[in-house]
Design a protein that fits this description.
By secondary structure, this protein is mostly helical. It contains six helices and three strands, in the order E-H-E-E-H-H-H-H-H. A hairpin with a 4-residue loop joins strand 2 and strand 3.
């Protein structure tokens, strides 16, 4: 595009533009916002129109391919998203539930340990989860050793050593 600024009078500009248009097969576009004439080759307009048409055709092809993919596999994507959301909810609920169970078992262990003898701990033992049973066996063994009941302490240490549900370091300590 060739801009022609207001260097000449309007009559001279019109004459120059008409000569250029006839000589070089140009068309005239007037830019209202800038106030100048733009001389554009017809060949340039054809090429630009062809490029625009090709670009639009490519965009339409891409859109059609994407729509076909969505029609073919969209329900799998939706199912995967739903399964991920449900799976996350299940895992979160399970974590919440196990945390609550562990907190309740820990509170019960603390209350039973507060007594001077081992009877409350022994009564609570079957109700506890495996990992808490290991800790309770060690607590009972410790109280039994303090009360000079070595046979009872050794029996509970043996139970703690055989517990596979608890912390391996605590089990090895027994």
């Amino acid at each position: 595009a060739i801009p022609v600024y207001g260097l000449f009078h309007q009559v001279e500009i019109n004459l120059i533009i008409s000569i250029l248009c006839e000589t070089y097969a140009l068309s005239i576009d007037f830019s209202e916002d800038r106030g100048w004439y733009i001389l554009v080759s017809d060949a340039y307009k054809v090429v630009m129109n062809d490029i625009d048409i090709v670009r639009e055709a490519e965009e339409d092809l891409q859109r059609e391919k994407l729509e076909n993919l969505w029609r073919q596999y969209g329900h799998y994507v939706v199912m995967a998203i739903v399964l991920i959301v449900i799976g996350t909810a299940v895992v979160t609920f399970y974590d919440f539930w196990t945390t609550k169970q562990n907190q309740e078992a820990t509170v019960a262990l603390e209350e039973a340990y507060a007594s001077k003898d081992t009877a409350p701990l022994e009564e609570l033992l079957p109700e506890l989860p495996k990992r808490h049973q290991l800790v309770a066996n060690l607590m009972i063994a410790g109280k039994a050793f303090n009360d000079n009941e070595d046979d009872k302490a050794n029996a509970f240490l043996e139970k703690a050593a055989q517990n596979n549900g608890g912390d391996p370091y605590l089990r090895d300590l027994a």
